[in-house]
Specification:
two-stranded antiparallel sheet, 18 helices
């Protein structure tokens, strides 16, 4: 049993019991005890008093004892963890680490047998991309590095919870769909769902499981849904994509805060990250969920891929598709619109309609021209951010030069 597995196990217990993840001192104490060190040695290594380390240890053993229903202390911690690890391999659930879905207990953590000798008669191949966009590879520009990053995260780092993030029009959905088109043969199950019209987690789970198990006509019981889902994620290499995830977050607040009626999704995302399986839940969103900042990446396989604009080479390919003039200004045009593929499409259309295909005429206007389509995107994004963020945006928009954080802290009149 590796130290990472020990820390993951401990983190799940602490979070289930206290609602908080392990902090740095708790991790240090667990590592030290696992390595056979005394409290005095641990205290010296992390520059804390021995009494402080003892207090942290006492609270940990108390939490573990209450969670596991047996007496845990410094002396028997290692042997207890090893015993439970062996029991988990036999699919005997002993951790008492529950994830809650509303008032229902959805899933009690357990590892599924990974023995390749066990014949899996339930394994099937299933794809549902009915609501995913169709991507013509001829019109897919750049993103070679991003495709390689996705492959590395999902196939090599075995990432369980993945987020592709970025502003409207930057190409998040297009990138993910292109990745699927190139790698679909590497998955047993691929499902794409969109949260633009948000449904409850219970409805989503019912939808997913009915689609997958329709041939078996399984009867789905509400409080067993998450167990069935994790059985699928464990036994079959699955990729489940949820697009427009920002719609389950509160608009007008700091990013990633769940709407009250959709907090159940947070439990699902945490469970996906913290539970052993061979699959990936991929979130496409304009906002980062709380799990991506609160969960320790050293303990759990989670990753974010934040998309930036296209490089000049890829941006020019889009402009070329519109057969615009003045190629010497194409790089400037790409930079003006931040390499955003959708912005470039909108502005290229406007150049054809208003400036007779001349990029130089648009640039000669000197002021940045914003199309009506862009204004709608900006307005929608602006309405989602918090009041503090709106104030920052408005302050920055009044200045041509770059502003530092210290500049933003100054009273508004000092910028005059």
């Amino acid at each position: 049993m590796t130290i990472t597995e020990v820390l993951q196990f401990a983190d799940r217990l602490v979070f289930a019991h206290r609602g908080k993840h392990l902090d740095d001192i708790q991790e240090t104490v667990i590592k030290g005890v696992w390595q056979g060190k005394t409290y005095e040695n641990i205290a010296q290594e992390c520059n804390r008093s021995e009494s402080r380390i003892r207090d942290v240890g006492y609270q940990l053993w108390k939490t573990f004892s209450e969670s596991l229903g047996e007496d845990i202390n410094k002396s028997n911690f290692c042997s207890t963890i090893e015993r439970l690890h062996i029991q988990e391999k036999s699919s005997i659930c002993r951790t008492n680490c529950n994830f809650n879905f509303g008032l229902q207990t959805l899933y009690q953590y357990q590892k599924y047998p990974q023995d390749s000798q066990i014949e899996d008669t339930t394994k099937t191949t299933f794809q549902d991309l009915s609501i995913a966009p169709t991507i013509n590879p001829t019109y897919f520009y750049g993103r070679t590095k991003e495709l390689e990053t996705l492959s590395n995260y999902i196939f090599h780092q075995k990432t369980r919870l993945m987020a592709v993030l970025g502003i409207s029009g930057i190409g998040k959905t297009t990138l993910v769909k292109r990745f699927i088109d190139l790698n679909i043969q590497n998955f047993d199950v691929v499902i794409w769902r969109n949260l633009k019209l948000v449904k409850s987690l219970n409805s989503l789970m019912t939808d997913l499981l009915k689609k997958i198990t329709i041939q078996n006509q399984n009867i789905l019981i509400s409080d067993e849904q998450l167990t069935q889902l994790f059985d699928l994620l464990s036994r079959q290499k699955s990729l489940i994509v949820l697009d427009d995830v920002q719609n389950i977050f509160i608009s007008g607040k700091i990013a990633g805060q769940y709407q009250k009626q959709h907090t159940e999704y947070q439990n699902l995302f945490q469970a996906v990250a913290q539970t052993e399986h061979q699959s990936c839940l991929l979130l496409i969103s304009q906002e980062k969920s709380q799990e991506m900042t609160t969960l320790d990446r050293e303990l759990y396989p989670i990753q974010n891929l934040e998309l930036e604009g296209l490089d000049n080479l890829a941006g020019i390919e889009i402009i070329q598709e519109y057969k615009l003039q003045d190629p010497e200004d194409w790089i400037n045009l790409n930079n003006m619109y931040l390499g955003n593929p959708l912005y470039l499409q909108y502005i290229s259309t406007l150049i054809k309609d208003i400036f007779q295909d001349s990029v130089s005429q648009l640039i000669a206007e000197e002021n940045l021209i914003i199309t009506e389509e862009m204004k709608l995107l900006f307005y929608t994004s602006y309405q989602r951010i918090s009041d503090v963020e709106k104030q920052i945006v408005l302050t920055i928009s009044n200045f041509e030069k770059n502003l530092s954080i210290e500049d933003l802290k100054k009273p508004a009149h000092s910028h005059q």
